[in-house]
Amino acid sequence: MTDAPFSAEQQEYLKGFMAGVEARRGSILPAGEGGGPPDALRAAQDATIARGGKLVPQEEAKRARHPLDRWDELTARAADGKFPKPIDDFIGRYHGLFFVGPTQDAFMCRLRIPGGILAAHQLEAIARIAEDCAGGYADVTTRANLQLREIPAAKGPEVVMRLGDIGLLPRGTGADNIRNITASPTAGIDAQELIDTRPLVRALHHHILHTRDLFALPRKFNISIAGGGAVEVLQETNDISLSAVETVAGLRFRLTLGGITGHRDFARGTGVVVTEADVVAVCDAILRVFIAEGDRTDRKTARLKYVLDRMGIEAFLGLVEQRLGRPLERLAEDAIRTPPPPAKHGHVGVHAQKQTGLFYIGVVTPLGRLTVAQLDGLAAVARRFGSGTIRLTVWQNLLISDVPEERLPDALAAIAALGLTHEASALRGGLVACTGNAGCKFAASNTKRHAAQLADFLEERIAVDMPVNIHLTGCHHSCAQHYIADIGLLGAKVERGDDLVEGYDLHVGGGAGPEQRIGRLIRPKVAHDELGQAVLGLLRGWMASRSAGETFHLF
Ligand code: SF4
Known about the structure:
Elements: H1 8-24, H2 39-50, H3 57-64, H4 71-79, H5 86-92, E1 97-99, E2 107-110, E3 117-119, H6 120-133, E4 137-140, E5 146-151, H7 156-165, E6 182-183, H8 198-209, E7 223-226, E8 240-247, E9 250-257, E10 268-274, H9 279-293, H10 304-311, H11 313-324, E11 329-330, E12 336-337, E13 349-352, E14 358-363, E15 369-371, H12 372-385, E16 389-392, E17 398-404, H13 408-417, E18 431-433, H14 447-461, E19 470-473, E20 487-496, E21 499-508, E22 520-527, H15 531-545
Parallel strand pairs: 6-7, 7-8, 18-19, 19-20
Antiparallel strand pairs: 1-2, 2-5, 3-16, 4-5, 4-15, 8-9, 8-12, 9-10, 10-11, 13-14, 14-17, 16-17, 20-21, 21-22
Iron/sulfur cluster binds near residues 475 and 477.
């Protein structure tokens, strides 16, 4: 039997089909037989070398064998009960496992929870993983995510596989990858929101996970999508920030780029707005330009901010448009109306939903740490009194949604029985701390312990009547974003006689959203045991001298 020749119509179809395959090559297809570096990575590295640049060791490691293809190395080491050496640790982070030695002889696993929204059965499964394979607790992070700690070497792959079993594969949660997408935690239940971000976050999350080229970045990358709801998402601290707005052309997301507050920069305006239907395509194009243009010779200047500083925003957007094959939509400021700002500390307490008769409860966690019993208990509360939905926030706390009004008293009592609360003082509601030196080698101080001590000290001495955010971060990586806090504390070693003690550089006046401002250093090197008095003095000064309604931010 011979092949029949294709008709002109069939040939035209095949030409289009193959053009589509070529266009998507490296995005849905593995590059090369049996995988290999994504095409975009190879091209960006080749361009760097052609310009005479020397790739940093992390880039050389990716070039030798792409980290996504090195799961076998990770499992082989685990079978021998060994933790990775530094460059292998970098590779392992593509699979969500971080070796946190020498602070702890253990792995940390960072999850990937799109928009921070979980089902009760997932939280219960996480509790079992924490119990069987980790330290018996989970930490809520400042990206509305969870981290498991104290994972022995042999259990690392098991944690990753068990998370994959429940639809939470932690791929790309560390190293040079796109981190957990943050979004409005009240999406779909918020009377104030303009756009329910859940379908978009889901689509973008899967696009990232299934697009091999997007594991070719020169450095980490953060994306946030705010729907205009009542809970602050801190979207302007992200590399890509999309915020829902009303415009003369209908609902859109306002695009800002290059936020990195650890480097003292908020995302900058672009004049571009994006429709819901275009979010994935625009994000993809931005990421591909970053992959091509990001610095692969110096880790310190490899983030998107530095590409924008070098090229300027218009030149960068021009390349994005080239990738898209069409112009971006631009609107003047007077054609855009922003929604009311989120309530400061709106993530705490009981709030009515847009669904009549239903409420969400903002539960305060002790600096993000939840024991196995509390994880199980919260899943049970969500299932018994709500719809079985748990929503993590960037404030290291969580919401239980869809609770009928008549069930609120019982739900609150069940939360209290877990040792948790829906109430917090104006100081504790915005108290955030990174992992600190109990679990992170970069930390100068024990941030979580000092944060708890600071809150106890202050609450005994002063009744603050307006929300004040206090963020403690252990090092300049600024995971707890000290620059955008009303009171921002950056870990520092402090001389005391011949010794060095733990302490902090004290910053004030930072803020996000309508209060956007980078905090300023007012007192360096305050020892941890003098912190209470120093902060108390600031708060008393503000309360004594403020004019009516003046927030701490303006002080
Ligand atoms: Fe570790 Fe520094 Fe991040 Fe704190 S801010 S968790 S010390 S890297």
